[in-house]
């Protein structure tokens, strides 16, 4: 009698074959943690236990307003109240009424609105300003997207799930988002997304390369729409250097 010979499965890590991401249990758990962590950090502001509305804290409209039972203020840059939130809300109000926010007639003799650096009317998360505590929701979403993009990048660099999770948690709570807030933080998630797209383009698989180009296009477009072009410029320089080294 002859013993049947088992056919060996080809490994997905064979030479010349791309490594495809697998959404295993640990990856799904890490993704849920990256989404839940910013929500937990901002629970007091989301539930209005801590008064975090920049329009009340920094604009001077309510001089008796305080930050809540916890001493201090949610962010260190007061311009979030009288620039980013005020101009962003004005721009979104015009968009929701079917008018392009090219010009702000309420400031002086009139100044550009969409062409400025503080309104960011075409940033995808700006419609959240129409909600109560919308600025808080924008910050939470920026943190979540920054964490998910960083996790995808670190996994593409062959880090373990645990290492990628901790790196993503650190990046989604970096000082630019948690201390400055406002428009300064809007382009932050685009940097790891840009680097992730570059890593995908390095794959020998044409379909993965195409998806990498898609993520690069999304990262560049959203970064420009975020309004702070100097941050987008610095991210682009790092992206060029990363591509050259890789």
Explain the overall architecture:
The chain is mainly α and 246 residues long. Helix content is 54%, strand content 2%. The protein contains ten helices and two strands; from the N terminus they run ααααββαααααα. Strands 1-2 form a two-stranded antiparallel sheet. The longest helix has 23 residues, at 134-156. The model is unreliable at 9-19 (pLDDT under 50).
Shape: globular
As a whole number of angstroms, the C-alpha radius of gyration is 22 Å
According to DSSP, the number of beta strands is 2
Content-based structural category: mainly alpha
- Measured as a percent range, the helix fraction is 40-55%
Mean pLDDT, rounded to whole units? 83
Count of helical segments? 10
Layout: helices, strands, pairs:
Elements (H helix, E strand, L loop, with lengths): L24 H17 L1 H4 L7 H4 L21 H18 L6 E2 L6 E2 L21 H23 L4 H12 L2 H6 L9 H12 L4 H20 L3 H17 L1
Antiparallel strand pairs: 1-2
Helix pairs in contact: 1-5, 1-6, 5-6, 5-8, 8-9, 8-10
Summarize the structure.
The protein has helices spanning 25-41, 43-46, 54-57, 79-96, 134-156, 161-172, 175-180, 190-201, 206-225, 229-245; strands spanning 103-104, 111-112. The protein is mostly helical. Strand 1 (103-104) and strand 2 (111-112) form a beta hairpin.
List keywords for this structure.
two-stranded antiparallel ribbon; 54% helix; mainly alpha; single chain; 246 residues
């Amino acid at each position: 009698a002859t013993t049947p010979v088992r056919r060996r499965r080809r490994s997905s890590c064979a030479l010349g074959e791309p490594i495809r991401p697998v959404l295993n249990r640990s990856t799904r758990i890490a993704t849920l943690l990256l989404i839940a962590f910013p929500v937990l950090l901002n629970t007091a502001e989301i539930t209005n236990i801590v008064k975090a509305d920049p329009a009340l804290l920094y604009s001077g409209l309510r001089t008796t307003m305080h930050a809540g039972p916890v001493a201090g203020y949610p962010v260190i840059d007061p311009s979030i109240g009288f620039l980013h939130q005020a101009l962003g809300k004005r721009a979104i109000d015009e968009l929701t009424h079917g008018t392009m926010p090219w010009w702000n007639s309420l400031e002086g003799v009139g100044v550009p609105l969409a062409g400025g650096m503080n309104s960011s009317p075409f940033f995808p998360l700006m419609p959240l300003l129409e909600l109560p505590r919308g600025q808080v929701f924008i910050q939470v979403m920026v943190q979540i997207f920054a964490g998910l993009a960083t996790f995808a990048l670190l996994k593409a660099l062959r880090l373990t799930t645990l290492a990628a999770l901790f790196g993503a948690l650190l990046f989604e709570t970096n000082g630019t988002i948690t201390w400055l807030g406002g428009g300064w933080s809007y382009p932050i998630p685009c940097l790891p997304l840009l680097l992730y797209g570059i890593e995908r383009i390095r794959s020998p698989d044409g379909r993965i390369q195409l998806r990498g180009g898609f993520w690069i296009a999304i990262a560049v477009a959203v970064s420009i729409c975020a309004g702070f072009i100097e941050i987008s410029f610095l991210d682009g320089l790092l992206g060029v250097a990363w591509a050259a080294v890789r």
